[in-house]
Design brief:
The complex is a heterodimer.
Chain A (H helix, E strand, L loop, with lengths): L5 H5 L2 H6 L5 H5 L23 H9 L4 H6 L4 H5 L4 H11 L7 E4 L2 H7 L25 H16 L3 E4 L6 H30 L24 H12 L3 H9 L11 H10 L25 H7 L9 H12 L5 H17 L9 H19 L4 H15 L7 H32 L6 E6 L3 H12 L4 E7 L6 H10 L3 E6 L3 H4 L5 E5 L2 E3 L4 E4 L2 H10 L4 E4 L5 E2 L16 H4 L26 E4 L6 E4 L2 E3 L4 H14 L1
Parallel strand pairs in A: 3-4, 3-6, 4-5, 6-9, 7-10, 9-12
Antiparallel strand pairs in A: 1-2, 7-8, 8-11, 12-13
Helix pairs in contact in A: 7-9, 7-10, 9-10, 10-11, 10-12, 11-12, 15-16, 15-17, 16-18, 16-19, 17-18, 18-19, 19-20
Chain B lengths: L5 H15 L14 H9 L5 H11 L19 H9 L6 H15 L5 H18 L4 H15 L9 H30 L7 E5 L4 H12 L4 E6 L6 H11 L4 E4 L4 H4 L5 E4 L3 E2 L5 E4 L2 H10 L4 E4 L40 E4 L6 E4 L2 E3 L1 H12 L1
Parallel strand pairs in B: 1-2, 1-4, 2-3, 4-7, 7-9
Antiparallel strand pairs in B: 5-6, 6-8, 9-10
Helix pairs in contact in B: 2-3, 3-8, 4-5, 5-6, 5-7, 5-8, 6-7, 7-8, 8-9
The chains are: A alpha/beta, B alpha/beta.
Chain lengths: 632, 376
């Protein structure tokens, strides 16, 4: 349909796996010859999100150049193009360990990336790290060291490829202990600088391409990812930890990063069992067995004194799915925080600003454990934390608490409730008599629009398109039919058939990203694409507080995974439940995505509280809005 | 193509003007700042006398030929009369006339508080808007005027009279800038017209005429294809004007656009209104010309003053209030036959290449940015 989407189809599904599965023969074979070890064992081992261009170039041209670069005498060529911090680092420790080879290559792609400073070091790391290279569990120390190296390299925006078959773990350990220390220092230094530069910026624009990280490749998030991991190793490393806390909301956790996951588990309140068969492409996202946490949490209620009961309640509601929908979740969270602030007492010898921020952070991480945050919630938390940080020291405890509570109140009423009213006011002007409006899933804003238009006496029809497994459209449908609207209900399978008769498509959004990409419930992209093909205008209704400055091109790098069981089985339908006990079968992976990203080409208009804007104007709103956020 | 950027053109023009001598009555004190940024600054509400001087200089040291209308002290002031008064001048656009009329409202207002004055202004602009509800530029011009004039630090003056005089000053300046927008646009578009090019124009637009006039004046060699512009045949009028300038002109019937498009190097159209998506609303036929040009990879340039930027967002052709006009087919039409009488259509932004405005040469997506910054 669209030329720009073609390349994706080229990727063979088999290829996707191989970024993580090492081909068995690679792990068995002896030390590879100096030329071929650079290359992935087969072209298959390129993970699709790993940015092929530099690697292909290496395959074609770099055959002779690369081994050259690995020889200890060619350190200059190794360092070329990377920052001094990383190159300096590579001098000492690596040369005595000739068996490990590190290739620093600055592909063209990275020049562009690295040239944007202030974005968490800006470096993007793509690394292919087939398991054949290391046995990670055995050579743990060595691999950690390598990870450190990569972290350091990341700061320099270099591409680090670490691959070695004949790595001697012991020797490696001795040789790199010094390197490790240095890497720590480097990483911390970089983290400090980055944290300073970034201020309170919430998260880093991720290049979607290389976000699926291989085992050791940290995603190119903030450098303070590195600092977190680093401080983790040292035990009590205060300053970076503090820096990280200031940074709200926390960087997204990559769940294929074992050490971090371990650490998170230790802190975790909610005991989650990991799903046994995780979908390879989405290993960086949390994949848990569903349904096991609730009783566990309930039993723990009296042991958890750190979490405020209101927050606890909201968390449970998220977990059980009682509260869903972007606005509802956000409001519930904010109200819980309001309660928590009301009951909050400043401990002696602490200040409100610091202690409350930490407190809120712990609540947030509790909520994340219950269900990953949506982008809008992240924005709301960012707002709250900035308000807390701005509480004047002269205010008394009760005064500052009251002011914070009223801030939250105002955020809810202005940014969510009033914004919705304004959106409805704008959107209703776009509904004419005789229209057939299609909506997908259930969006509170769209529902209000439809009801308002009906109240105004407009004659129109509604098509509610729905999809398994959530079937949230049914609830919307019920409320619409109750109010007397004439509705049609269809599943997404029928969307191309029904689109012929539709004159407008209204959809809600979980978030709108600054390249105009609409991040919304899974299936929205499909509906929008069909509508675009039929030349039906697609109107996205989204409050401005859900806008985010991140850029995302696909639905892979950041997403949420739902319970795979609900797509495997259909309740009360014995005849189609062929997969009943199959969920744990080795060669079956069930993928239940929650969100997807709709490219801006398919969006005709975004209706927000600032009026109707084209998707190209989202960055303007983000800019103006974040300025306003400071004012409130 | 870097040299085609608006600011560069403006800078060069200003530098040349500055080089020409200090004899000009209003030399630009800061030739580095382009009109584009000045206007932007104005939209952000940062207006200094410095800026006004620069804007003046950028537009050129052309004296204002307008006579100051004197109000009749006996008769109560009516904004419509004032508007009609201004509208009589043939070269004055409707929106500019409205802006001038609104400025007069401030001048002759008897209000004693800022609030009163604002309400009076609001009422006047509402009555102007209702005078012709279908005119996009009139509505947009009034809205912009209100935003421009009232969104100012002048409202912080403690003394009403000084605040009022500040408002009058701003109103006059806005009127002047709008009045001279056409010249700015003509200047900006010169670098896009190269020797030997063929330009297709549709309908009669004073801005486009000004552009072509200036190009002819600059001794550019180009040829113009004029569409006929049925039903009011405005193309004929444009061809007439161009013939006077000794520009080679060829007249086409409206349906010959696709036939001649392969000879055409660029399409130049005016606009009734520029909408928030970056698309334009213009005389019927613009959309199909843009479609043909787009499919043959010819650039479509729109010349439009910034007071035509409207807070509208049509989703499709039928999504705006139609402006009905009579169509004469020359033969009697049976009463059963329907006639499409709409006078204008909407061209979506993806078919437009660039917009020449007095804010600079913009891509369609910038229009919305400007509007957001103005109205937010």
């Amino acid at each position: 349909m669209d030329a720009r989407r073609a390349p994706r189809a080229v990727i063979d599904p088999k290829v996707r796996k191989v970024g993580f599965f090492a081909p068995p023969e690679a792990s068995q074979s002896g030390p590879p010859d100096p030329i071929s070890f650079q290359l992935p064992p087969s072209s298959n081992s390129l993970s699709p999100v790993m940015i092929p261009p530099p690697c292909h170039a290496a395959e074609n041209l770099g055959l002779h150049a690369r081994p050259d670069a690995t020889s200890p005498s060619a350190e200059e060529s190794v360092a070329a193009g990377s920052y001094s911090s990383s190159s300096e680092f590579f001098h000492a420790p690596m040369s005595p360990a000739p068996s490990s080879r590190i290739v620093l290559g600055n592909g063209d792609f990275f020049h562009g990336a690295a040239s944007s400073p202030g974005r968490g070091g800006g470096g993007k790391v793509a690394s292919s790290f087939p398991r054949g290279g290391f046995d990670l569990t055995v050579v743990n120390d060595a691999s950690l060291a390598i990870r450190e190296i990569e972290k350091a390299g990341k700061g320099g925006g270099a591409m680090v490829e670490v691959k070695d078959q004949a790595l001697n773990a012991k020797q490696k350990k001795e040789k790199t202990s010094k390197a490790e220390r240095r890497a720590l220092q480097e990483a911390q230094r970089a983290a400090k600088a980055a944290a300073k530069a970034e201020g309170n910026k919430a998260s880093v624009t991720l290049a979607s391409v290389n976000v699926k990280p291989a085992k050791a490749a940290k995603p190119p998030q903030k450098v303070d990812n590195a600092s977190v991991a680093a401080s983790e190793k040292r035990g009590g490393d205060r300053p970076p930890e503090k820096d990280r806390k200031k940074d709200v909301p926390q960087p997204r956790m990559q769940y294929d990063d074992k050490s971090r996951v371990e650490k998170a588990k230790r802190r975790a309140v909610v005991k989650q069992t990991e799903a046994r068969n995780r979908v390879e492409l989405f290993r960086h996202l949390p994949q848990y067995e569903h349904g096991s946490q609730l009783p566990d949490l309930e039993a723990k209620f009296f042991q958890l004194d750190s979490v405020h009961p209101a927050v606890y309640k909201v968390g449970l509601q998220y977990l059980s799915g009682d509260i869903s929908g972007g606005n509802a979740r956000c409001i519930a969270m904010l109200q819980a925080f309001q309660e928590a602030i009301k009951d909050y007492r400043i401990p002696s010898e602490k200040t409100l600003v610091r202690d409350l921020t930490a407190k809120i952070s712990s609540y947030v991480s509790f909520l994340i454990e219950c269900r990953p945050l949506s982008i809008s919630m992240g924005n709301a938390i960012r707002f709250l934390k900035s308000r807390i940080a701005k509480v004047p020291l002269t205010l008394s405890e009760s005064e500052s608490k009251i002011s914070l509570q009223s801030d939250i109140e105002r955020f809810i009423s202005e940014k969510i409730i009033l914004a919705n009213k304004v959106i409805v006011k704008h959107a209703v002007t776009k509904i004419r008599d005789g229209d057939v409006l299609l909506t997908y899933g259930s969006s509170s804003a769209v529902e209000m629009i439809l009801l308002q238009a009906h109240e105004l006496g407009k004659q129109f029809q509604v098509v509610v398109v729905d999809s398994r497994p959530k079937l949230r459209g049914k609830l919307l449908l019920r409320r619409l039919v109750e109010k007397g609207l004439s509705c049609t209900y269809a599943h997404i399978n029928a969307v191309s058939y029904i689109m012929n008769e539709v004159t407008r498509v209204f959809i809600g959004a979980s978030s709108v990203l600054s390249n105009g990409t609409v991040y919304s419930g899974v299936g929205t992209a499909c509906v929008a694409m069909v509508a675009h093909a039929f030349r039906v205008p697609v109107l996205v209704c989204c409050e401005a507080y859900k806008f985010h400055e991140r850029v995302q091109h696909d639905s892979i790098c950041s997403n949420e995974l739902g319970d795979p069981d609900v797509i495997a089985t259909v309740r009360s339908r014995e005849d189609v439940n062929h997969l009943e006990a199959w969920a744990n079968t080795e060669n079956l992976q069930l993928l239940n995505l929650i969100y997807d990203a709709t490219p801006s080409d398919y969006v005709s208009m975004i209706i927000t509280d600032y009026g109707m804007v084209p998707p190209t104007s989202v960055p303007v709103i983000v800019r103006e809005y974040s300025r306003e956020q400071v004012w409130i | 193509m870097w040299w085609r950027s608006a600011s560069f053109i403006m800078d060069r023009q200003q530098n040349e003007a500055a080089l020409k001598g200090e004899s000009s009555p209003n030399p630009n004190p800061n030739p580095k700042i382009s009109a584009y940024y000045e206007t932007r600054a104005a939209h952000h509400g940062v207006v200094t006398s410095d800026w006004l001087a620069q804007a003046q200089a950028a537009i050129g040291p052309e004296p204002d030929p307008e006579p100051q209308p004197r109000p009749d002290p006996e008769k109560p002031f009516s904004v419509i009369d004032e508007f009609n008064n201004w509208r009589k001048q043939p070269h004055l656009a409707e929106a500019v006339a409205a802006i001038r009329a609104l400025a007069a409202v401030i001048r002759w207002s008897e209000a004693t508080t800022m609030m009163q004055l604002e309400m009076e202004l609001k009422k006047a602009s509402d009555s102007l808007k209702s005078w012709d509800a279908t005119s996009i530029s009139l509505t947009a011009g009034c809205d912009l005027f209100l935003r421009y004039v009232t969104r100012t630090s002048a409202l912080e003056y403690e003394d009403f009279n000084s605040a009022k005089s500040r408002l009058i000053e701003r109103a006059d300046k806005f009127g002047e800038i709008s009045y001279k927008a056409r010249n700015v646009i003509a200047m900006l578009s010169q670098d896009f017209i190269f020797d030997g090019c063929t330009i297709l124009v549709h309908g009669f637009s004073r801005v486009v005429l000004q552009v072509l006039k200036l190009a002819a004046h600059n001794n550019k060699l180009f040829r113009v294809f004029c569409t006929e512009g049925r039903p009011d045949r405005t193309g004929l009028r444009l061809a007439n004007e161009l013939a006077k300038l000794d520009v080679p002109v060829k007249l086409l019937i409206d349906s010959a656009v696709a036939y001649t498009m392969d000879e055409v190097d660029m399409v130049f159209v005016g606009a009734d209104g520029v909408v928030e998506s970056g698309g334009i609303i213009n005389m019927m036929g613009t959309y199909q010309i843009a479609l043909v040009a787009h499919s043959m990879n010819k650039p479509v340039y729109v010349a439009a003053e910034s007071y035509k930027f409207a807070r509208l967002y049509p989703l499709d052709q039928k999504d705006l209030a139609p402006a009905i006009r009579p169509i004469d087919f020359g033969v009697p039409i049976p009463s059963k036959v329907e006639v499409e009488r709409s006078a204008r259509d909407y061209t979506p932004p993806q078919y437009l290449t660039l917009l020449f405005t007095d804010l600079g040469v913009l891509t369609p997506s910038v229009v919305s940015d400007e509007l957001i910054q103005l109205y937010l």
